[in-house]
């Protein structure tokens, strides 16, 4: 067994993460050992007290994970936890191969799952209620005798408590008497509501005196609330998963639970300074599991502190607290202003500030920007999704003329379909830059790609800085479906220069013309970012 952590947090409250075990039970998540190691590092960096790594012996990947985690990771905060079931009915814990695998994992902490719902004991385990209690007692005391810390997950506890409260409590008592350090009440089917959880946890605590934890699935959308309700009732151990990943619709989300405990309850559950890493860690774990981070996730989503309504912005201008429940920086997030047709003057002023453009309280300019945004959004533009196009619009109003690095004379895209099924795309761009007339032609895998290449060939002669620009995303949306192919088309393009990304928008009846507008903005903004002086 390896002692894996030197946690500076006291033991009176546990933040227990089960992303690598229950989180991995989410449909669509398929973690390699390397992924699990990467997530374990992020969770330890975040500062959780316990990381449940999987079920050693259930599959070779989890067995390998425990071996490698202890050999390769120097945990600074967390203790590694192995998960498994109580011994089989009618056997001995000391002889159960599955219990042996838990010990062989070397994890200093073991979570056992036990049945606490009488019906599950009889139907799923196919044993007697007394034998189930014996399985709990025998397995806990055996693992304790082997020097492990033991947490006991009481599966289906809340449903079991409703069906047979005395039996459910007998499971808790048996585990605690056998030496379990924490008995965790699980809402396995996720059907509970906060008031129910609060009532049950309060009663079980009063009746058994055991140290209690909570494990809440999110099937009613209440897992975070249920977790906090259990804490209100006296639970001192919370089991969560990063970003709420988990079986079916998921588990209690680690990040809002921890943020609530630290910021709303005033409990110190993370090491000093780690709360500010919340957003980064949430997104880093999403990257590893290969799921796009939810933009609307509380505390950590990019929209968590994004303000769109003009009325909100006008109050935020006076004091951001008026429309925010916390300072976003506390969880490593940032406030963002969204400019759209719901914006007012205050939104534009704050957005200007965010972009480093001092509007100096110029009511006339700000008013013109608001008008332009509203008029263009009516035509289909969207500025909340295209910050770079908005900045160009704003600068044009402030300067009194658009930012110009080049003057386009004309562009043309040709799509040639051949009878043999092959096709070719070719574009020609004619423009003026620094008093030079440039004509460039390029081919591409589609007409927009050909135009992008031709524009780049033309501009790179004058502005070599553009060589590192890359088009990273391209989205098309038909705005008025009822007009069929003559509908208005909106194109959003994301461009990267390796150190940052920006989005631009174009709108036209023709998808290629809309794309061209977005491309022109993308390159203009790229030159602005590179610090190039515009043409006089
Ligand atoms: C609520 C939760 O999320 S708990 C976590 C659940 N996670 C997983 O199931 C993922 C990993 N599981 C596995 O890889 C496999 O199910 C294994 C290796 C654990 C077991 O595989 P198998 O031996 O083939 O059994 P199988 O999966 O068909 O059934 C589970 C067995 O465990 C028994 N069991 C269920 N809960 C418990 C328990 N708390 N204590 C003891 N035995 C239990 C069941 O009665 C069943 O026994 P049976 O084989 O005699 O019918
Ligand atoms: C243990 C567990 O994951 C549950 O009961 O949901």
Describe this structure in words.
The chain has 536 residues and is an alpha/beta fold. It has 17 helices and 16 strands. Pyruvic acid binds next to strand 5.
What structural keywords apply?
17 helices, eight-stranded parallel β-barrel, 16 strands, three-stranded antiparallel β-sheet, Citramalate synthase, binds pyruvic acid, LeuA/HCS_post-cat, 536 residues, alpha/beta, elongated, disordered N terminus, transferase, binds acetyl coenzyme *A
In this entry the ligands are: acetyl coenzyme *A, pyruvic acid
- Tell me about the biggest sheet? 8 strands, parallel, barrel
How much helix is in the residues? Answer: 25-40%
Rg calc: 29 Å
Low-confidence stretches: 2-7
Average predicted local confidence, pLDDT: 94
Class derived from helix and strand content: alpha/beta
Q: Number of helical runs? A: 17
- DSSP E strands, number: 16
Overall shape: it is elongated
- First CA to last CA: what distance? 72 Å
Strand content: 15-25%
Placed side by side, the strands forming the largest sheet appear as 1-2-3-4-5-6-7-8
EC number: 2.3.3.21
Protein name: Citramalate synthase
Keywords: Amino-acid biosynthesis, Branched-chain amino acid biosynthesis, Isoleucine biosynthesis, Transferase
Pfam families: HCS_D2 (PF22617), HMGL-like (PF00682), LeuA_dimer (PF08502)
């Amino acid at each position: 067994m390896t002692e894996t952590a030197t946690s500076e947090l006291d033991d009176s409250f546990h933040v227990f993460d089960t992303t690598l075990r229950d989180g991995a039970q989410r449909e669509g998540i398929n973690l390699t050992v390397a992924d699990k190691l990467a997530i374990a590092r992020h969770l330890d960096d975040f500062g959780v007290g316990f990381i449940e790594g999987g079920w050693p012996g259930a599959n070779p990947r989890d067995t390998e994970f425990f071996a490698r985690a202890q050999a390769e990771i120097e945990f600074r905060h967390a203790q590694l936890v192995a998960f498994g079931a109580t011994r089989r009915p009618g056997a001995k814990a000391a002889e159960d191969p599955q219990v042996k695998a838990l010990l062989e994992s070397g994890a200093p902490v073991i979570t056992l799952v036990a049945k606490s719902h009488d019906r599950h004991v009889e139907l799923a385990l196919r044993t007697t209620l007394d034998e189930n209690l014996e399985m709990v007692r025998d397995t806990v005391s055996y693992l304790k005798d082997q020097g492990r810390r033991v947490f006991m997950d009481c599966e289906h506890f809340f449903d079991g408590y409703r069906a047979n409260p005395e039996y459910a409590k007998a499971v808790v008592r048996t585990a605690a008497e056998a030496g379990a350090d924490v008995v965790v009440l699980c809402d396995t089917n996720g059907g509970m509501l906060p008031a129910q959880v609060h009532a049950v946890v309060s009663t079980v605590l009063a009746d058994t005196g055991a140290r209690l934890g909570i494990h809440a699935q999110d099937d009613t959308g209440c897992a975070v609330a249920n977790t906090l309700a259990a804490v209100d009732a006296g639970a001192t151990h919370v089991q969560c998963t990063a970003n709420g990943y988990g079986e079916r619709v998921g588990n209690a989300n680690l990040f809002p639970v921890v943020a609530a405990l630290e910021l709303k309850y005033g409990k110190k559950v993370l090491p000093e300074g780690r709360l500010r890493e919340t957003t980064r860690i949430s997104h880093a774990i999403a990257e590893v599991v290969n799921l796009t981070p939810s933009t609307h996730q509380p505390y950590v989503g990019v929209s968590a502190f994004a303000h769109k309504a003009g009325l909100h912005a006008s109050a935020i201008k006076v004091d951001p607290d008026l429309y925010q429940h916390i300072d976003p920086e506390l969880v490593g997030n940032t406030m963002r202003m969204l400019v759209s047709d719901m914006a007012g003057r205050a939104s534009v002023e704050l957005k200007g500030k965010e972009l480093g453009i001092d509007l100096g309280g110029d009511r006339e300019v700000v008013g013109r920007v608001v008008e332009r945004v509203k008029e263009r959004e009516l035509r289909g533009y969207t500025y909340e999704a295209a910050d770079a196009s908005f900045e160009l619009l704003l600068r044009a109003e402030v300067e009194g003329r658009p930012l110009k690095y080049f003057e386009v004379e004309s562009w043309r895209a040709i799509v040639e379909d051949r009878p043999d099924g092959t096709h070719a795309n070719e574009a020609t761009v004619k423009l003026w830059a620094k008093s030079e007339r440039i004509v460039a032609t390029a081919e591409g895998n589609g007409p927009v790609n050909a135009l992008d290449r031709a524009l780049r060939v033309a501009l790179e002669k004058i502005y070599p800085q553009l060589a590192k620009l890359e088009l990273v995303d391209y989205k098309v949306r038909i705005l008025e479906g009822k007009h069929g192919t003559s509908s208005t088309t909106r194109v959003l393009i994301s461009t990267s220069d390796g150190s940052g990304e920006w989005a631009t928008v174009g709108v036209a009846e023709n998808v290629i013309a809309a794309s061209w507008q977005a491309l022109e903005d993308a390159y203009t903004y790229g030159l602005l970012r590179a610090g190039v002086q515009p043409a006089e």
